[in-house]
Amino acid sequence: MNKQHGFTLLEVLLAALIMFTVLSLSALAVQTFRLSSHKSERLIKALTPVRAMTLQIKQQLQQEHGDALAGHGSMQDVSFHWQATLLEQKAAPIQMDPDTGLVSSSAPRFKLFQIELTLSYQGFTSTKVYKEVIW
């Protein structure tokens, strides 16, 4: 009898099927990685100026008076809009003067605001909510 050399058609088709499956899964993984990387890049770019934005918002809250304030602006290609709502307004704790024994209280000057900050960068929008104390 003659010995066969090479592969049968079934073996070649099975190897091709496995190869194309691995290639398609690899392509899908690369596409998912690229999309995830792009989203992460936009998020990082949008969140980079947040500290400067919160300082600007705090400064505006200290200058303006009211129970509900709002504003908007743009920093480093990131546009933002914020709304602040007064949650509480309190005075400093009552203090007793140890020399005279008199109790003194002050007017309410501490304000607690809840701030909703909406960031927009290249079609990406994110909303952050935080609280800020102003005096």
Report on this model:
By secondary structure, the protein is α+β, with helices and mostly antiparallel strands. The chain contains two helices and six strands, in the order ααββββββ. The chain has helices at residues 9-47, 50-63, and strands at residues 68-75, 78-90, 95-96, 103-104, 110-121, 124-134. The radius of gyration is 31 Å and the shape is rod-shaped. The protein starts with 8 loop residues before the first helix and ends with a strand. The mean pLDDT is 92.
Describe the secondary-structure layout:
Elements: H1 9-47, H2 50-63, E1 68-75, E2 78-90, E3 95-96, E4 103-104, E5 110-121, E6 124-134
Identify the notable features of this structure and list them briefly.
2 helices, four-stranded antiparallel beta sheet, alpha+beta, rod-shaped
